Amino acid sequence: MHKNGPVALIFHILVLTFVLAPLVIICLVAFTPENTLSLPTAGLSLRWFEAVFAHPDFVASFWNSIWLATLSATLAVVFAVPAGLAISRYTFPGRDFLNALFLSPLIIPHLVLGVAFLRLFALIGATGSFAWLVATHIIIVTPYVLRLVLAALSGLDRSAEQAARTLGAGEWTTFRRVTAPMILPGITGGWLLAFINSFDELTMSIFVTSPATVTLPVRMYMYATESIDPMMAAVSALMIAITAVAMLVLDRAFGLDRILVGQR
Where is the ABC transmembrane type-1 domain (predicted)? Predict the structure, then answer.
């Protein structure tokens, strides 16, 4: 087995420090008892977390983000699974175009998408609608689900499906009882990645939210333009915690290596 040398180990440590240091610092600042952004040198305090939960705008925006991310991720799975089955198993005119179309939001800047959606909604009179906000998030999170579904289908042994069809099972029964359980890690991993990306989305959401549908990242941006205090650090720490818990659940349930890398 090849082992990393000291230079590689030092490089890895530097990269991890560079990535994790800002997260650790913002989480520490969230526990400061002071009124300014500073490390808690005089003890830890939960006052800014209490301030977050006592702030009605932040609470409302949090629930907006939860519902938005849940609906967007779920509907993205509804679209991505049949699309993945069609792309991976059938040859038809426009197959490559369809695949590129579904994955295109990964390479289009969200700023461009936000401006485009803002103009579209203004033309059709759909501004301020939560349903249209969900639609925009479905578009940007579907590629994450589709990529993992395609990866799961690419390594799938179809002998079990063929055996089920030979024994008289219909297409829907075969999918429900055989195919879906076999690609469940890809579906679940895609759903969680879609949920996280929808929950954290800011750049595009700024253009398509209304006062009644402001999401938590947009609320944080609006608050930061007016004042900066440790309450922003507390909200950031909560978002980091939610993301970390989601990834931990995903790792414990299926394994991140299996879902993101494809290891079995």
Answer: 62-250
Name the token pair of 23: 């997260």
pTM of the model as a whole: 0.84
Smallest CA-to-CA distance from 66 within 244, 262, 242 is with: 242
Nearest to 193 by CA among 154, 151, 152, 143: 143
Q: Which CATH number fits domain 56-260: 1.10.274.10, 3.40.190.10, 1.20.140.20, 1.10.3720.10?
A: 1.10.3720.10
Taking only Cα atoms into account, the Rg of the chain, rounded to an integer number of angstroms, comes to 22
Sign for the CA dihedral angle at 108, 112, 114, 116 comes to negative
Please give the Cα distance from 210 to 196 (Å, whole number): 21
The predicted-structure confidence for 165-197, as pLDDT tens digits, reads as follows 787 877 888 888 888 888 888 888 889 889 989
Q: Please give the Cα distance from 248 to 40 (Å, whole number).
A: 27
Token pair, residue 222, equals: 């609006």
Taking a C-beta distance cutoff of 8 angstroms, is the pair 65, 137 a contact?
A: no
Burial status of residue 117 (CB atoms within 10 A of its CB: 0-12, 13-18, 19 or more): buried
